[in-house]
């Protein structure tokens, strides 16, 4: 994807890119993937479609870039010093990120990805891979400290830890904006003791 | 939903209903929810649309009925006598059911449910609730046998056990027909020891 390479020579370009990505997220939240047009995004960001297309050559690359930017915003990597603390932060972050506007975005993308392979691939790369690697880091640190036995099958850890959260908040009848972040985090706290035991702790 | 009530006075009606539901699943698999028309389903089942509408008054109630019939087909409830045996069967069934045609169906419905509340509700009732109750049964039996300590927070069990499977097979870039049931069941077996430990066993 050469069109996704940054061409950010000037601060004005970076600010304009950011405005376009924010506009993309806003239009996605309002209209869904199917209803999003590059014209609507350009209008919302106050630029011409020609300007948009100089930076992103298609609706798909634009949406993927917006999702990637959002995912980067959401993935923090605190090191609390304990497995329990790290996992609590991770589960709470993930649950909270699947409510509100980012929750609506994820639902729209998961829905579209069901019949759009390129988007499914981007979803895996921008949303799932960072969560997976964060889980693996947290578990590896705990094993290095001797808090838990080493895990041989690290490839399953992302699904084990983040899977219940994603399944609960993405495949349920409840709309993401009906769940407030506090409720989502309280749900994550209920999951925590089970996940700790699964990893050989607690 | 009064139109969903069975009116199966004669065996011929039951056979025709079954044919319509099978036709619905086939058209869903080919065209997705957005592309499905009641006319296409009626034509495939060899009946008039008037006949279809006498039984199901809308596309939505038809698809929901088809999904419910499929879910009933898939949910078996073996009692192997051990928590490990019961969970292995449950995880393997669930993983296998998310490959092939039923996997395509689930993806299509999850995708559509992202912006269709009635369908999201039906998905929860027909697909998620039976899995959830099966998990709860299996865990309750194990606790009753004294194999594991009693679980206070049973409301989380469905997400804990089935969530990783659903997340792995429904929110991934891999198309359901690229995964054969054997591969899916082997993946389920990798998850099993973690889930057993989470429940206080093994």
TrEMBL record, chains A, B:
Keywords: DNA-binding, Transcription, Transcription regulation
Residues in HTH tetR-type domain copies: 14-74
Matching SUPFAM superfamilies: Homeodomain-like (SSF46689), Tetracyclin repressor-like, C-terminal domain (SSF48498)
One Pfam family named in its UniProt record: TetR_N
DNA-binding region extent: 37-56
Keyword Cell division applies: no
PANTHER family assigned to the protein according to its UniProt record, in alphabetical order: HTH-TYPE TRANSCRIPTIONAL REGULATOR RUTR (PTHR30055), TETR-FAMILY TRANSCRIPTIONAL REGULATOR (PTHR30055:SF148)
Protein name: TetR/AcrR family transcriptional regulator
Protein species of origin: Streptomyces neyagawaensis
